[in-house]
Amino acid sequence: MRPIWSKIYEEIEGELAGTRGFCPYHPSHFRNQDCTFCYCPFYPCNDQDLGEVTKSRKIGKIWNCTYCNFIHRRDVAAYVHGRLRESQISGPEDPALRELFEETKTKFHRKGKAVMVLGATSDAGKSVIVTAICRILNDRGYSVTPFKSQNMSLNSRVTHEGHEISMIQDLQARAAGVSRPSFRINPILMKPKGDGMSQVILEGVPAGDYTSAGYYSDFVPGPGTNVLRKSIDFLQSRYDFVVMEGAGSPAEINIYDSDIANMRAAEAADADCILVVNVEWGGSYAYAVGTLDLLHPKDRERVKAIMLNNLKGEVSGMRAAADDIERITGIPVMGIIPHLDFDLPKEDSESFRGVKTLGRGRTVVVVPKFPRISNFTDLDPLLHEDVTVRFVSSTDEMEGAAAVVLPGTKSTISDLEWLKATGIADRIVSLKGKVPILGICGGYQMMGRTLSDPFGTEGGPSESEGLGLFDMETEWPESGKKTELFEGTYIPTGDRITGYEIHSGVSKSYEAPMFKTQRYTEGSLRADEMLFGTYVHGLFDKPCFRRHFLSEAGCALAEEAVDHDEHIEKNIDKLAHGVMNAMDMEIFNRVFSEESP
Amino acid sequence: MRIMFLGTSSNSGKTTVAAMMCRYAAIQGVSAAPFKASNLSSSWYITESGAPIGIGQAFQAVASGVIPEADMNPILLRPEKGGVARYLKGRLRDMSDETAVSEALASFDSLSGRYGLVVCEGSGSPVELNLSGSDIANMRMVRERSIPTIIVGDIERGGVFAAIYGTWKLIPEEDREYLQGFVINRFRGDVSVLYPGIEELESMTGMRCFGVIPYMDLRVPEEDTSESKVSCQEGLRSLEDLLLACKDSVDLNGMLRISGA
What we know:
The structure holds two protein chains of two kinds.
Chain A: H1 4-13, E1 52-56, E2 60-64, H2 74-86, H3 95-108, E3 113-119, H4 126-139, E4 144-147, E5 150-152, E6 156-158, E7 164-166, H5 167-176, E8 188-192, E9 197-202, E10 205-211, H6 212-236, E11 241-245, H7 263-269, E12 272-278, H8 284-294, H9 297-300, E13 303-311, H10 315-329, E14 333-338, H11 349-352, E15 357-358, E16 363-368, E17 373-374, E18 387-392, E19 403-406, E20 408-409, H12 412-421, H13 424-430, E21 437-440, H14 442-446, E22 450-453, E23 462-465, E24 472-475, E25 482-490, E26 495-503, E27 506-509, E28 515-516, E29 521-522, E30 524-526, E31 531-534, H15 543-552, H16 564-581, H17 585-591
Parallel strand pairs in A: 3-11, 3-12, 4-11, 5-8, 12-13, 13-14, 16-18, 16-19, 19-21, 21-31, 22-24
Antiparallel strand pairs in A: 1-2, 6-7, 8-9, 9-10, 15-18, 17-20, 22-23, 24-27, 25-26, 25-28, 28-29, 30-31
Chain B: E1 2-7, H1 14-27, E2 32-35, E3 38-40, E4 44-46, E5 52-54, H2 55-64, E6 75-80, E7 83-88, E8 91-92, H3 97-114, E9 117-121, H4 139-144, E10 149-154, H5 160-170, E11 179-187, H6 195-205, E12 208-214, H7 232-245, H8 252-258
Parallel strand pairs in B: 1-9, 1-10, 2-9, 3-6, 10-11, 11-12
Antiparallel strand pairs in B: 4-5, 6-7, 7-8
């Protein structure tokens, strides 16, 4: 008998546990899960609908239940608990246990309901609506997952398995209460490289560079279509709801049949759809009607509701238009969502393009706006203090800088050349010792003496001299990319830091390190010259390093040391409430009824 | 001779496309006057008579090399406490919609009599249901003066085919005869990927595609900022660059032809 059965006997003897939010391991799978069974009595069920065989770091292959929520459903936990109590099942080898599993699965397991949020345009507010819906459904106790088959974004995150996914799907997973999202929630991530090419991340790992035309002719018919099916099946068999997000408009008739981000994904999941229209710019009526009319008839049938988003005036003024839309399209308007006030990381690089400053504080943190800037959500937590983040493209914008942050980039050496050409590089070097300077990832690499990319990993082969702020060399190996969650301590203060690393360049630094983990040290630090460099993204999320860095910049720190993760959590709730209040819940409940279509 | 540019939304690029038309006509030796019946703007240009007009029309006039005048934008709307105030050629006038229409038509006719071509610009989307009154600048003008019309769609946010189709669809059938074609604005990338969509849209609506305008970082006078930082002369340089970039992709000559010139 396996030792874990002694625990299971205790679970059977005990009462139904419900959600145990106080447990240090909660939520091991999803927020609001039922914790009656911490140890699953059916392990290993070897059922492909629920788990999978994976390689373990220690002991070869194991049965992996990371993404199985089955035993944590309230109805399943209650049923299995009752049946185990009343039956005389002796232990893991008892054939009756297998029978009970099969019986429970037949009774409770079904494909999750998929609902897709489409937008009439990009920037319609799809991702925000998906975030809100994930939270609303999870608050009701459901296991929920977001999904976007294909996302183009410069901001990415790393999963606990070391896969790269888009920042926004990671955020949506947080809203859904999923503690450890899988790469399957965003199997295709396209990272624009700035020259008409995008690096395609497939199932969390780099899979080559494509032009837009090449992507549709070569990638979509093969790997793209495959992965779509696989990801959706995986998620639908494990979650009550799969809340899918489309990309751009689903009515791009020039690429309609190869658009795996919209109606083809909806079809694969047999999803009902909600169309979101941003009413801010006017013409929303034409956008709604035009989008619906250009869908193929069988696709149009999937659209069960329309949401009018981002209204800046009175809702009553929009009601008549909403009635007209219902009358003409025959589809109910599920909500007229006002322009909501919440603070969450933003998805779109389009909307980022025009951004010059963030925040209105007195301490100016200057950030070079690299042409290929990436992971710039790193900077968001600075706004919890008295800070203005100023993105600069020329030296005259650097006046009054109290600190400099060199952010991440998709292409370090070419952005370094840009930094030199604009004169910003020299200006930064001249600020050495006067204001704190921090480089993150690509920005860190630039701070060293030399950078060498002999295989052209990030563009054509090239070598460059860095800013020379650190005694450090960076080289890009022929292949390999580090994508890993990071947990360590900031050496000068001993405070804990969490974050993640995504980079293919490797640096050899002769400086004192910034962080230490259990296994290694990371980063470079010259405390007397206020020079900081690290590969760790997200290092401003926890207040300790953020406040240390900013106090060096002479910033008056806010009274409250805000934890950025908690801030995000609060704002997800705020958003979800705002959306829920503006929604016709009767229509919402109809669309999100558990019955599969 | 007259032509109208209507947008699928605000900020779709009507002003710039109309300015291109003005400039092109001027180069071809056609004297062109810009016209926008009514304008809700916060940036004004003061004409010689002292009456303000929208900065967009002033810019278009400069583009065609003519002197900006009050008739080019007879009605100004100014958001004020308790609603929107209407100004007629610089004077606050409490007038009915019908009076506004006849004043606008009078201005149009005056320009039409003095210039070879009147290049009209609409306001917002012509099929907005919840904003009454904006029609004066859009389909009402088109109907009253039978103006050949081109729809300007913005592809930057995506959904441009849907926007153009939806706009066409929601314009009453009896008015669709004025809709001669469309233009796709702010496109990035290889234009050939659009062709299948353009052809489909053409065959669905019977409208012709007059071109695809590439995205450019333009420095032209903006209507929606309270401080217009870019002068008309400065804007002209950007406009010249844009015209050059559109040399092969936009059929300005075709537009001039449908205007009756």
